[in-house]
Amino acid sequence: MASLDQLSVLVIESQPTMRAQLRTMLSSIGLAEVQFAVSAGMAVRRLREHRYDLILCEYNLGDGQDGQHLLEDLRTHEIIPLDTLFVMITGERNYERVVSTAELSPNDYILKPLAAEALRARLMRALDKRDAFLPAWRLMAIGDTPDAIAYCKEAVDSYPQHIVDFMRLQAELHVSSGQMAEAEAIYREILSGKYIPWARLGLARTLFLSKQYEEADRILTELIAENDRFIAAYDLLARVREDTGRPEAALDVLRTASEHSPYRVTRLRHVGALALAVNDPAAAEEALAEVVRKGKYSDFRDPEDHVRLVQAQLALNRVDAASATITDLDRSMGGQPKADLCKALSTAMLHSHTGDAARAREALLGAAKAAPGAANMSVGLKQELIKACFDHQLGDAGGEMVMNIL
Q1: Is residue 273 part of a domain?
Q2: Which of 127, 143, 166 is the last residue of a domain?
Q3: Quick check: is 393 in a domain?
């Protein structure tokens, strides 16, 4: 096991006084290689450039940012490896409830006020646990899921104190391999011994992925009734209802979730897409304008958000607003892989709306040239782009894009 003085540390803390306190405290327990980030955005940029052994993150980062959302972004986008420890620091006395409902939880969390010796003990405990899971994580990193599952099964004998965590990881690995029956059995085994909200959520996810929609809906509805701040349950329930042909019901669920957690861009993006689907362009514009506004300060911004916003604005006949959105797309997103294609498609939508077929065709030909850079474009926008080409008698360009981006 690595000793504390060997660890490289990133502290994410917006308050200067707390940063100074942590610097002194970490130095007193032997942690000398410490760097700081004052916001989630700065942390993401540092973590893209440098690998750290340990991240200490304040839960409340200000300006609508919190450490839990940052952790989810870092893990989801694979910005930090599995063996980087993420420890949350919080003054929230109900944080244990937050962790119990989170799909992605930190390696540990520490309540304020901090004490040096208590911090040292918690970090040593986190390192011990990391050592137990390290073989599984290394197998996962090279794509050897079967052996990672096998290790989880064997490790419960050597590390009985981590049995539930090994079962959780094993279930998640089965899900990632498409083995829903195996994952479902593990979640049910966990729940037979103890009621754990994240295990109920995991069970609901396996049922959803197995198209057992009715039971998944029931479990998720119960979870939300028990805890109206169980945000991950809202998100999954919306997917259940969307996949069962109830977009209005899905939108209602996401709106409620957004009232409790208004800063999550991925959820606002989903609200906007659903609002467009149910022909509520005003709601779509409201949500997507917020997504675009927040995206200006995000490391995970997406040019497609501007395209969706243009769709909503044109549906409301707000031509000047749509034109301004396209200008903003070009100014703020230029250089991103699919920005040129998104700009061309948005421009074609605008000219088509105003009846200028010639300029719409010209813009779509530009989209065809940009198509090779659209490998990560959503299926929905790919289909709209191809349809627009055929609608404007650009069959050759549409066919070429089918080959390039589908």
Answers
A1: yes
A2: 127
A3: yes
**Number of structural domains the chain divides into:** 2
Whole-number Å distance between alpha carbons of 387 and 293? 29
Is residue 250 in some structural domain?
no
Print the domain residue range for 268: 264-405
**Residue where a domain terminates, one of 60, 93, 127:** 127
Separation of alpha carbons 314 and 306, rounded Å:
12
**Which of the given ranges, 190-194, 339-343, 372-376, has the highest pLDDT on average?**
190-194
Packed helices 67-76 and 40-49: angle between N→C axes, nearest 10 degrees: 30
Residue whose C-alpha is closest to residue 136's, from 83, 78, 71, 202: 83
142-145's contacts with Cβ under 8 Å and 24+ in sequence apart are 145/173, 145/176, 145/177
DSSP 244: T
Q: What is the pLDDT of residues 206-240, one digit of tens each?
A: 999 999 999 999 999 999 999 998 999 999 999 99
CA–CA separation, 199 and 221 (whole Å) = 15
Q: Which is nearest to 226 in space by CA: 314, 102, 101?
A: 101
Q: Say if 241 falls within a structural domain.
A: no
